[in-house]
Design goal:
Galactosyl_T, galactosyltransferase activity, 8 helices, two-stranded parallel ribbon, 28% helix, 309 residues, alpha/beta, binds 2-acetamido-2-deoxy-beta-D-glucopyranose, glycosyltransferase, 2 domains, Spore Coat Polysaccharide Biosynthesis Protein SpsA, Chain A, eight-stranded mixed beta sheet
Amino acid sequence: MHITIMRYALKKKILFFGMVFIVLMIFLHPDINARRSYEYIDKDSILDHLHEETAENFTSSAVSDCDYRDVIYDDTTLSIRLVDDDLVEGHRIRVGGESAPQDCKPKFSTAIIVPYRDRAEQLRGFLVYMHTFFRRQKIHYRIFVIEQVDSRPFNRAKLLNIGAVAAMKAGYPCLVLHDVDLLPLRPANLYSCTLLPRHMSSSINQLRFVLPYLNLFGGVIAMITKQYQLINGMSNEYFGWAGEDDDFYSRIETYGLKLCRFEAEISMERRNQFTVGKTRIAADGLSSLKYTEVATVLHPLFTHIMVDL
Ligand SMILES: *[C@@H]1O[C@H](CO)[C@@H](O)[C@H](O)[C@H]1NC(C)=O
């Protein structure tokens, strides 16, 4: 009886010191959570950091250039309920999910690349919402949905590579790599590339429909197409959810690039640093991309590329 009580007290002590230790570790090593450094761009200097370029062969009949100041200072949010609605008429979208403002000449052409499988209802909501959202942004854009049709584990990074290749062929100078379950709320979150690759989904308040996996990092990245080519895209080797983001960030850093974000905010990232050598980067990525294109269909709201990896 006595011994049992002593053991109990000892256990309590161990538990207590263990907790203290863990709490201290968390407080004394904040860099565990902040190993990645970001360049923060405040609102007033966003316009100076944008990469102005439109797609090869894109023409606009508008006379004056679009002005993005009112987009950046737009404080409104869109209603998330839009995902349940139908698209409002009047937004001229060309087959394949491409659109551009009519009344001014856009300075940006952006390919939105969405890796996808099995979430038809979510995709529908995403498309309606995004086209409505882009209407306020005055950019030229096109939405590419890359669907993995085989039954192997989902390979998000490889699908992004395939989408990037399609966007390059269509002449887009800027890529936005986009998960289908993330929606930007503020029209101020301009879908264009900055001079540095930009992590878009952490600096905005956004909503996920579901959380099928913990992905605080992936989300939405904007990157100049030439930079994506420079780092040889993403690795093709990550089947299933995990690791591809770290690999991607490591590529970005290996080539001397740095990520940026619009306006600072408490960051949520964790995960360990991870490096890949230039040799491996050169061998795995756009340069080694192999897949079977099952079909490409131009839908009214998006370009649908079905692939067997
Ligand atoms: C742009 O137009 C030229 C001439 O018609 C064509 O050769 C080229 O492939 C086009 N580029 C893209 C990206 O479509």
